[in-house]
Task: inverse folding
């Protein structure tokens, strides 16, 4: 148990560093809110190696801490809804057992953006911003795909030693 | 290769992509030139301005100017905001019906309205 706590702390730190690196990269494609999703590498890795509960915990705490460090209370709200929706979809797809990491990660990326935009629409009470949904979903697809490839390689190479 | 990518993955990814593309095509086909710009502040209508006017609007919240919207040549563009990330300022000018600029920290939505509005609006409000 003690070792596991230390491990989780380490992964949380890693996820926070990913958040920080991401906040340094200007990543802009005409629509706000598109991010690389580097931290998802850590979440996917944990989901496949340590377990569901652990991955969920690290994901949620990471979002809250990163929100206070690099964002604002609003970004926490949006990231949290995106993060939880993304995690749920990844968990369910992974549970099916037939899909590989890449696909699971793509679903996570797409659902993350979906959750964020729907929350944003609810907060500003304007459903027309859902207009950006297709753009954000494509972005989620592309970033999720690349993040998935990276996660896949990490899991295949060092997954059994984590 | 099997360890990394299977047939099921291919099918699932293709389906996801197809659904997204359909949604995208639907949105693009529904685009038309807008006529007015509506500024929403915290969900309520703040101001409605025809796109044909060339003017600058200071959006005020509790007496303080938080965002500046510039309407020029039929396009609306957010030129200034007091939030740190300035995402709305970086957004491209909008002119098509249904397009929006959103400032999340200040809860401001700028939306272009077109000539023909569907039932969707009355339903969504």
Result:
């Amino acid at each position: 148990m003690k070792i596991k706590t230390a491990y989780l702390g380490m992964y949380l730190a890693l996820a926070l560093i990913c958040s920080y690196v991401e906040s340094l990269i200007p990543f802009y494609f005409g629509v706000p809110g598109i991010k690389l999703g580097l931290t998802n590498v850590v979440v996917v890795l944990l989901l496949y190696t340590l377990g569901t509960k652990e991955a969920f915990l690290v994901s949620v705490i990471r979002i809250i801490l990163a929100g206070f460090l690099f964002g604002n209370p609003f970004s926490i709200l949006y990231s949290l809804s995106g993060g939880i929706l993304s995690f749920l979809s990844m968990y369910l797809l992974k549970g099916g057992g037939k899909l590989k990491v890449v696909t699971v990660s793509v679903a996570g990326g797409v659902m993350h953006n979906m959750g964020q935009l729907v929350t944003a629409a609810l907060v500003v009470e304007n459903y027309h911003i859902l207009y950006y949904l297709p753009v954000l979903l494509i972005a989620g697809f592309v970033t999720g795909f690349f993040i998935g490839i990276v996660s896949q390689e990490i899991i295949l190479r060092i997954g059994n030693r984590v | 290769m099997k360890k990394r990518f299977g047939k099921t993955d291919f099918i699932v990814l293709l389906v996801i992509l197809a659904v997204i593309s359909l949604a995208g095509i639907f949105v693009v086909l529904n685009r038309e030139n807008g006529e007015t710009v509506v500024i929403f502040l915290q969900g309520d209508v703040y101001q409605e301005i025809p796109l044909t006017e060339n003017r600058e609007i200071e959006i005020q919240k509790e007496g303080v100017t938080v965002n500046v919207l510039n309407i020029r040549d039929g396009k609306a563009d957010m030129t200034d905001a007091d939030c740190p990330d300035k995402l709305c300022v970086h957004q491209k000018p909008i002119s098509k019906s249904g397009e929006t600029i959103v400032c999340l920290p200040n809860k401001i939505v700028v939306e272009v309205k077109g000539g023909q509005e569907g039932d969707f609006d009355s339903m969504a409000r």
Q: What stands out?
A: The mean pLDDT of chain A is 88. Chain A has one domain: 2-161. Residues 133-158 of chain A form the longest helix (26 residues). DSSP finds six helices and no strands in chain A.
